[in-house]
């Protein structure tokens, strides 16, 4: 059984469990006010609260989705673990004795899910649990040194380095960053030795989270091959994909920053040089000037060796911005040209042969909220407040009316839909963690523009017109509690005050409660 099959299990006839969800019509706003799903005990203290002051309907929709996302992460998917299986580094702790699983249908954290959920939200909201989750997918090598667990999905290992750096910047945990530097650097070096194409200057392997063969055209998809796992199809191990290489670029920089912290300046310099060369290779081989965007992947072997597939990869385009690959001009261009389906930006567009609107591919023209979260954050970073606001609404309206964050949705109707792969329809699992943390990412890092730095917390908000004032209360950050209010609209801060005084950052060393007020224009 392939990895993709292990994750998803056999298809059931009840795969479509929900109809189309409401948009921002009057009926949709009414539906948004319905009670949301919550786990027992989810009303506990100590979690942040968001308030949209301008509209009851917007408060019900966007605020309700925020509360449901917190329930998903902090209650439903924070679960006990078996130390014998998961604490192979000896670095997990009890308390808290729990970690974050991938979702209601997936009892394991999974390397990419553990990393993405920590990066998206958990390192801020639940730092001790996020630390456990990150270490749960690491192991010790024969010499005792740390490494991300080695499996046959090597391309999804390196995002761990980015999440680890983010965890340090968010928490300031010096012991963690010392160990994380070792694990991330060892993983990067192993993958460079095994999967780096010297001719192109790019890393080989499938695309981020695209472990199912429905995420690729034919070739490399072989219709005669009944396996859903990408590596069971010919020449898939040598593809050079946009998302994966953008993540490697950010991982080099993350490892360099961690090397600086632990005092290894020579390694930091080498890593930054490698990152610069990788960025040049991505721009040289994957940028499509005629389309003002990047292509999906280059065939590394087989009948189409050297050919660039020109499909739009949602995660790849988001990572080109978030991982520092795309220049400002190229960021503006790709944000302008990226296609959005009626219910959000999809994994890969357009449909591959054999798929269509009635039978969308599981990793093709279909909406994964995690992808929408990455895309929306990229839009905020790129200055497109309008596209950012649309992404927030896309996830919030998909999440309704049952209050759960499902794994995958139909890109045209918004119905819960696992998509098609190997001539059968698959399930969409309920309570998918990274669907919820993708929304939390949009709120914290997009709307409020939180930027975690060694010295403290900086803000670059993106507030769509008519959404303000909006306040995030009772946010725990290091040894303090923050109340943050945005007024006005846009992404240009004309005034930032901390406790009534002008300030660029919230210094990391503060304690107690503090009030941040940002006026935008």
Automatic annotation (TrEMBL):
It comes from the Bacteria. Pfam families: MGH1-like_GH. InterPro entries: 6-hairpin_glycosidase_sf (IPR008928), 6hp_glycosidase-like_sf (IPR012341), MGH1-like_GH (IPR054491), TAT_signal (IPR006311). Residues 106-435 form the Mannosylglycerate hydrolase MGH1-like glycoside hydrolase domain. This is Mannosylglycerate hydrolase MGH1-like glycoside hydrolase domain-containing protein.
């Amino acid at each position: 059984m392939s990895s993709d099959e292990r994750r998803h299990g056999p298809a059931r006839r009840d795969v479509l469990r929900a109809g189309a969800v409401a948009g921002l019509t009057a009926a949709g706003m009414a539906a948004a006010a319905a009670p949301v799903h919550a786990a027992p005990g989810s009303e506990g203290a100590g979690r942040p609260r968001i308030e949209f002051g301008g509209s009851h309907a917007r408060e019900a929709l966007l605020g309700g989705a925020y509360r449901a996302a917190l329930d998903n992460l902090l209650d439903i998917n924070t679960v006990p673990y078996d130390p014998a299986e998961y604490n192979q580094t000896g670095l997990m702790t009890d308390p808290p004795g729990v970690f974050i699983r991938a979702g209601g249908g997936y009892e394991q954290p999974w390397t990419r899910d553990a990393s993405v959920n920590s990066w998206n939200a958990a390192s801020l909201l639940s730092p001790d649990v996020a630390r456990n989750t990150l270490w749960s997918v690491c192991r010790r090598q024969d010499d005792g040194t740390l490494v991300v667990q080695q499996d046959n999905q090597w391309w999804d290992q390196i995002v761990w380095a980015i999440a680890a750096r983010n965890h340090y910047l968010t928490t300031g945990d010096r012991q963690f960053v010392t160990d994380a530097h070792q694990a991330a650097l060892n993983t990067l070096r192993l993958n460079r030795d095994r999967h780096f194409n010297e001719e192109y200057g790019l890393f080989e392997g499938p695309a981020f989270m695209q472990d199912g063969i429905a995420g690729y055209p034919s070739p490399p998809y072989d219709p005669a091959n009944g396996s859903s796992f990408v590596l069971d199809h010919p020449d898939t191990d040598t593809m050079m994909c946009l998302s994966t290489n953008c993540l490697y670029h950010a991982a080099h920089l993350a490892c360099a920053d961690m090397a600086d912290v632990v005092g290894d300046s020579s390694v930091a310099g080498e890593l930054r040089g490698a990152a610069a060369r990788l960025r040049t290779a991505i721009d040289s081989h994957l940028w499509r000037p005629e389309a003002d965007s990047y292509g999906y992947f280059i065939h590394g072997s087989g009948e189409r060796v050297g050919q660039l597939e020109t499909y739009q990869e949602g995660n790849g385009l988001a990572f080109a911005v978030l991982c520092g690959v795309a220049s400002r001009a190229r960021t503006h261009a790709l944000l302008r040209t990226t296609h959005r389906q009626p219910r959000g930006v999809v994994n890969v567009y357009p449909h591959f042969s054999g798929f269509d609107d009635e039978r969308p591919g599981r990793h093709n023209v279909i909406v994964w909220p995690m992808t929408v979260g990455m895309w929306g954050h990229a839009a905020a970073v790129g200055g497109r407040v309008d596209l950012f606001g649309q992404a927030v609404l896309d996830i919030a309206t998909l999440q309704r009316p049952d209050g759960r964050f499902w794994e995958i949705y139909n890109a045209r109707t918004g119905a819960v839909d696992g998509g098609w792969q190997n001539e059968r329809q698959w399930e969409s699992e309920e309570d998918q963690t990274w669907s919820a943390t993708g929304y939390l990412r949009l709120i914290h890092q997009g709307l409020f523009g939180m930027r975690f730095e060694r010295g403290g917390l900086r803000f670059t908000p993106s507030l769509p017109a008519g959404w303000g004032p909006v306040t995030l209360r009772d946010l725990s950050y290091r040894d303090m509690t923050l109340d943050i209010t945005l007024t006005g609209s846009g992404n240009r801060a004309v005034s930032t005050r901390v406790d009534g005084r002008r300030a660029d950052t919230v210094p990391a060393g503060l304690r107690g409660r503090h009030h941040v007020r940002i006026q935008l224009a």
